[in-house]
Specification:
It is built from 7 helices and 7 strands. By secondary structure, it is α/β, with parallel strands linked by helices.
Amino acid sequence: MGDRRTPRRPAVNTAEHGADKHLPSIRPPTLILASASPRRLALMKQIGLTPDEVDPADIDESTKSNELPRDIAKRLAFEKASAVMARHPGTFLLSADTVVAVGRRALGKAETEDEAYTFLKLLSGRRHQVHTGITLVTPTTNIISRVVTTAVIFKPLDQSEIRGYLKQDEWQGKAGGYAIQGYAAAFVRQIQGSYSNVVGLPLFEVSNLLRGNGFPFWTETAR
């Protein structure tokens, strides 16, 4: 009995039949920003990073006894990420916290005009540090924390300059009682390190941290 061969079907040109049109599209991974700061959101958008969702963490931001400013920034960024990560499994989640410090003394967010005045008098003619803690949670729940520090030197400020600045109201809720991206830029004699870090988010370090952990941007799969 002779061999009965199955007739070979002609090859199908998938390009002609448009078969690739039915392949699932590759969606970029989701990015969550665990911060209510409009400055951080604006900074991220500046380098082409638009979070899919902003989900601020509600945590107690009180400092602990004898806690160094750098440690405060790192701990609070970590606690912000920890507070919301369970709500966003399988995503990239970024949190941050910024602390202004003179030596070992941390200056919080100015709540009153008198407090802002006290902060600015302390910063007048002096070098101070701005510490920003950043925490990244990856889709595989790997948690990476960093602290970036920038040194800022203010010129000596007289009372009229401080009072004039306070009338602009941009001190409200700002760490150290000032916003470097606003009128207070006139007070800055020198800056050593990342400018965006002083605004609230060190963009160089954040972009490298995201890229190094598999988050794509400025690529074909980027948002």
